[in-house]
Amino acid sequence: MAKLSLFEKRRQRVRTALRKQAAGRARLSVHRTGRHIYAQIIDDAAGKTVASASSLTKGSKDAGATCEAAAKVGKDIAAAAKKAGVTTVVFDRGGFLYHGRVKALADAAREGGLEF
């Protein structure tokens, strides 16, 4: 069995805790890279992505790795979730720490109407 990195251990720990709390709710999954940030709302029961948003969208490409871009992605994902009929989710930060861009995205998604 291969040894897991600290990031992978943290990701598995977060995901395991979420499965216990989910109770059939959709999952707001966040992925962060050095240049961009991505968010998806996933219905794990159906195995489908309900909505998605990223800093790759046209017009925000120059500000991909900032907290402002992450906040815009948070607002976009909240709007897309409302359009798809999703109001409550569980926040899956993956192996990323809850600060900076991840926190900015979460706060903006809450302001946009998502409950978690």
Could you characterize what this model shows?
The chain has 116 residues and is an alpha+beta fold. It has a single domain (25-111), classed as Nucleotidyltransferase, domain 5 (2-Layer Sandwich). The protein is built from 3 helices and 4 strands; from the N terminus they run αβββαβα. Strands 3-2-1-4 form a 4-stranded mixed beta sheet. It is globular. The mean pLDDT is 92. Belongs to the universal ribosomal protein uL18 family. Part of the 50S ribosomal subunit; part of the 5S rRNA/L5/L18/L25 subcomplex. Contacts the 5S and 23S rRNAs. This is Large ribosomal subunit protein uL18.
- CATH structural architecture: 2-Layer Sandwich
Provide the number of structural domains. Answer: 1
Strand arrangement, largest sheet? 3-2-1-4
Number of helices: 3
Percent range for helical residues?
A: 25-40%
| Sheet of most strands | 4 strands, mixed
Instruction: Round the Cα radius of gyration to an integer and report it.
Output: 14 Å
Helix and strand run: HEEEHEH
